[in-house]
Amino acid sequence: MELYIDTANLDEIKQAHDLGVLDGVTTNPSLVAKEGVDFHTRLEEICKIVSGPVSGEVVSTDAEGMLKEAEVLTKIADNIVIKLPTTVEGVKACKALSDHGVRTNLTLCFQPLQAMVVAKAGAFLVSPFLGRLDDIGADGVDLIHQIRTIYDNYGYQTKILAASIRGPKHMIDCAIAGADVATVPFKVIKQMLNHPLTDIGLKAFLEDWYKANPKPEAATV
Predict the structure, then answer these.
(1) Which residue in 14, 83, 95, 120 is the catalytic one?
(2) Average of pLDDT values for 118-128?
């Protein structure tokens, strides 16, 4: 499963990139607004750090406007992916862009038929939002299972990008369900590497090592 970070914060992106396991970045206007920077400038900065797919989202609600925005966004870097809403107008824009070789990420997907339609329109990524479904008493991970089955049944090549992930348990469930990609906040990436038994074990190993190999005493004058 590929790992993307969901942020517009350059420090977080650099830290995740330095781990050597970061495959891409997702952003949206809200995340960039929190940083207080220009949207296009920040995307350009991100693309200089990360060579994998970087999703830049449009704000237009009509296909014509989305395509105009996409024309500007694709000039930022070769690895920009155009993030579109999973709406009628978004699907129209997706099809037009896909026909010209532009990769798209169809976001705000909440049911399997939406995922099927955007795959037929040639989407590179579809982003089902797990956490937001869980918030209303639905099962976000079950949506991943449904989309995976549909895509496998018909050979759709669109990648399933699990979004709105709230913690490590979501990550485990998505990996088991067959999500191709997961995009997460930096705090979740850090949580994925934490376990109390790891800390306890490392502490014990080091204590045993220094019992057998005492640290040299500091030199005295």
Answers:
(1) 83
(2) 98
